[in-house]
Design goal:
Elements lengths: L5 E6 L4 E4 L1 H7 L3 H4 L22 E6 L5 E12 L5 E9 L5 H11 L3 E5 L5 E4 L1 H7 L3 H4 L12 H16 L3 E7 L8 E11 L5 E10 L1 H19 L6 H12 L6 E6 L1 H4 L12 E10 L14 E4 L4 H8 L3 E4 L3 H9 L3 H4 L4 E9 L2 E10 L8 H38 L10 E8 L8 E9 L5 E11 L1 H19 L4 H19 L8 E9 L4 E7 L5 E3 L5 E3 L17 E5 L5 E5 L11 H13 L5 H12 L8 E8 L7 E6 L5 H16 L5 H18 L4 E7 L2 E8 L19 H8 L2 E7 L2 E9 L4
Antiparallel strand pairs: 1-2, 1-5, 3-4, 4-5, 6-7, 6-10, 8-9, 9-10, 11-12, 11-16, 12-13, 14-15, 15-16, 17-26, 18-19, 19-20, 20-21, 21-24, 22-23, 22-25, 25-26, 27-28, 28-29, 29-31, 30-31
Helix pairs in contact: 7-13, 8-13, 13-14, 14-15, 16-17, 18-19, 19-20
């Protein structure tokens, strides 16, 4: 700039002796006016004095027309031949002139790639960083179109579009792009910023472009996003294999071109982890995936096992419990690739990461990540990312393994408690189904039972314990055993549930648990094939459904009562007469209830399914489950179907007995005649002895009326009922006792015997096996 050449020479006294043309243009004073004057007379304000007439720095000069002129002075001494000062050379510049070279230097030396283009997108200015990235010198770039220096690709077309938008609209623009600079071997992430450049009067001159390499920041964001995705994408189910597949899906192609997960066999089963072997490791491939179609890098098929030699990266990762990074060219890596028998892939696979899947101090397997398509090899930050992903996946795999083990244990325990083969009896024909839940909550406490009772009657039981898992199954076992014990006492349904309710309260008190957590629902029904009466009582359980022979189906109205464990509230029994061939359906709430299900609609669907034609009771069971249940039930389901039978008049004989000892002989004779009519003469002698003893006891110790009944079912049943509520019991008779041997004789002569309380007293019964045909 011309103004930058303003200079003057002053002597030792401070008198101007020389004056340049630039000084004239700056101050307006010609040389003839300035020379001979004191230099301080040119100032518009006083300045500190010193050895020099003026000091270097900012000053304000007075123009010839009187206006102030800011300037920056640089004062240099003038020396003679002997080094003595003879005067000073003073140069004056505008205040911002000193900053102009500094701004130019900052532009040229900036670490960002900065360039300025005109409206025609030709380079006007290019700094050193941009030159290095473009691989050209500044002389070769200035004047050329910025599009000519790059390949014709999507990035170049986008750059052209964005620059024209900035120059056309005058609005700045910022965006991120993944592209490869001409001088770089691989693409990188760039933060591009463009803004319009205008002149002093606001006229558009072009646009400026700055590119900042944000590859590392972009990768960090990608890693963080991947970890956030892993929190929701891995472990969506409690399934070991599915969890491994989710890890592979997350790693490919974000982290690896090929990834695989290999697990120990015991992880897939219910066994405890064995002692780790010292030599080769045998693992089973459970999941793998590739960025290339068909997973060409896979040497091991899904489900197969593979042996990893001790020097291989996966074996080292398992042994050292840390991630192992291996690259092509390393002896162990090349040796392992050759041992695997894939020499065609050795040149392709250039980098590998083996990360142990370790959770709660136990190594479950290994995840292997391979790069053969991505040009960049793995680095330390990739290792940290893979370890974090593997750690999260390992916890999910271990949770799935523990869930599968607990579920298998609970299911085995439950199957051991549920009836496998229902006992043969003539009262009902039964079919049943039990479907364990596959939900994350685990196996529930649903159970059912069919219990033969005296007098050819049968008890039908179904229940559901609150909760899931092994504790629920254990509680189910205790309740199931308690119901069988109480049923053996032959209690009425409502009384049995009262005793069962007390038991649950005691269990809760003994276990120091909340009663509600140990509670249960239960339905207990007794069917008598002689009277064809069904007696039902429920404790918080859904009402059973009844399908009549004419095809109509309805729910049996039952007072549900409180669940077991509440205590203090009564249970009520419901009685109804059933025709032969009616089907009673008992079930747990998992059949009709669910998070998104309407109970009324599900109940209607149950009645329709029961009324549908079926070849057998077994087929009807399958049809009910198919029509009523959703595809994925959220709870256990127990279903028990019972088709009623009836004992005809030719199978039951009844006789009233007078309270007279002479009636014993008549009762014995009557029993012999009935057996002869039934063709059971072979057991007549034993039966007459049993009838004699039971009738004698009833006459001697009982209360009239007394009734004798014989039932010919799968066994011969002899019953004697009276109005007394006192139950008999066996006792040991001494040698000289005249009585006390009757019931002992009955117990020895019959298959089993017992007594039950009735509304009108008690009934003593004894069963004998029928003779083999």
């Amino acid at each position: 700039m011309d103004d930058a050449s303003a200079a003057m020479v002053v002597d030792a006294r401070g008198i101007v002796t020389g004056w340049s043309e630039g000084a004239r243009r700056l101050t307006g004073h010609p040389a003839e006016e300035a020379v001979g004057r004191a230099v301080r007379a040119l100032l518009a304000e006083d300045t500190p004095s010193g050895t020099a007439p003026l000091l270097s720095g900012p000053v304000t000069l007075r123009h010839r027309d009187g206006r102030p002129v800011p300037a920056r002075l640089t004062v240099r001494p003038l020396l003679d031949a002997r080094g003595a000062p003879t005067g000073h050379l003073i140069t004056a510049e505008p205040p911002d002139a000193a900053r102009t070279p500094l701004a130019a230097w900052a532009f040229q030396q900036a670490s960002l790639a900065i360039s300025v283009v005109g409206p025609d997108l030709r380079y006007l200015l290019v700094n050193d960083t941009a030159c290095r990235l473009l691989g050209e010198s500044q002389e070769n770039l200035v004047g050329r179109s910025c599009l000519d220096t790059m390949e014709d690709d999507e990035y170049t077309r986008g750059l052209d579009r964005h620059l024209r938008r900035v120059t056309g609209t005058g609005e700045p623009l910022q965006y991120e792009v993944y592209a490869q600079a001409p001088s770089q071997p691989r693409p990188r992430t760039w933060n591009m910023e463009m803004w319009p450049v205008a002149g002093p009067s606001g006229e558009p001159l072009g646009a400026a472009l700055a590119a900042f390499d944000t590859t590392e920041q972009h990768r960090a964001r990608q890693r963080l996003a991947l970890l956030n995705e892993a929190a929701t994408a891995i472990g969506t189910t409690l399934d070991v294999v599915r969890t491994a597949e989710e890890l592979v899906a997350l790693m490919v192609p974000a982290v690896a071109d090929f990834a695989a997960v290999d697990l120990h066999d015991w992880v897939l089963g219910a066994d405890e982890p064995p002692v780790r072997p010292d030599t080769g490791v045998v693992l089973r491939r459970v999941a793998h995936g590739s960025a290339a179609e068909g997973s060409p890098e896979a040497v091991v098929r899904l489900g197969q096992t593979d042996v990893y030699p001790p020097f291989s990266p996966p074996a080292r990762a398992l042994r050292e419990c840390r991630a192992v990074l291996a690259r092509a060219g390393e002896p162990d890596f090349d040796r392992w690739m050759t041992v695997r028998g894939v020499p065609a892939h050795v040149a392709d696979v250039h980098s590998l990461l083996a990360v142990p899947l370790r959770a709660r101090g136990v190594v479950l397997g290994v995840a292997v990540a391979v790069r053969n398509l991505h040009p960049e090899g793995y680095a330390d930050d990739d290792t940290a990312l893979a370890e974090e992903l593997a750690s999260r996946a390992a916890v999910c795999v271990d949770n799935a393994r523990r869930f599968a083990r607990e579920r298998a244990t609970a299911l085995a325990l439950q199957h051991s408690l549920l009836p496998r083969g229902l006992p043969g009896q003539a009262a009902v024909e039964v079919a049943h189904r039990y479907l364990p839940s596959a939900s994350a909550a685990g196996i529930g406490g649903d159970w059912f039972d069919v219990i033969p009772l005296s007098g050819s009657r049968v008890a039908l039981v179904v229940g559901d314990v609150v909760g899931h898992g092994i504790p629920s199954t254990a509680t189910m076992g205790r309740l199931c055993t308690a119901v069988r014990t109480l049923a053996d006492v032959d209690l009425p349904p409502d009384e049995l549930l009262t005793h069962l309710d007390d038991l649950v309260i005691h269990l809760a008190a003994d276990d120091r648990e909340d009663v509600g957590e140990l509670g249960s629902t239960c339905l207990y029904a007794v069917y008598d094939p002689v009277s064809r009466r069904l007696t039902v009582a429920a404790a918080g359980h859904p009402a059973p459904a009844l399908l009549l022979p004419d095809g109509t189906c309805r729910l049996i109205h039952v007072n549900a009562g409180p669940p077991l464990g509440v205590g203090g509230l009564p249970f009520e029994a419901t009685e109804l007469q059933l025709p032969e061939g009616a089907v009673v359906a008992l079930y747990t709430d998992g059949l009709i209830e669910g998070r998104d299900r309407d109970i009324d609609r599900a109940t209607e669907a149950l009645c329709r399914a029961l009324a549908a034609p079926a070849d057998s009771l077994e087929s009807l069971c399958d049809g009910v489950l198919k029509d009523v249940l959703p595809e994925e039930p959220g709870d256990d389901v127990a279903l028990l179907l019972a088709r009623t039978r009836a004992l005809g008049a030719d199978q039951v004989a009844t006789r009233d007995v007078l309270p007279d000892p002479e009636e014993v002989a008549a009762a014995r004779e009557w029993a012999g005649e009935r057996l002869a009519a039934w063709g059971l003469d072979e057991i007549a002698f034993v039966t007459e002895l049993v009838v004699s003893e039971l009738v004698t006891n009833a006459i001697r110790y009982g209360v009239p009326p007394i009734r004798l009944r014989l039932i010919r079912d799968r066994t011969l049943i002899c019953e004697v009922a009276d109005a007394s509520s006192t139950s008999p019991h066996l006792r040991r008779a001494h040698a000289y006792d005249e009585g006390g041997r009757g019931l002992l004789l009955v117990a020895q002569l019959t298959q089993r015997w017992g007594s039950r309380q009735t509304d009108g007293g008690k009934t003593i019964w004894a069963e004998q096996p029928l003779p083999q045909p």
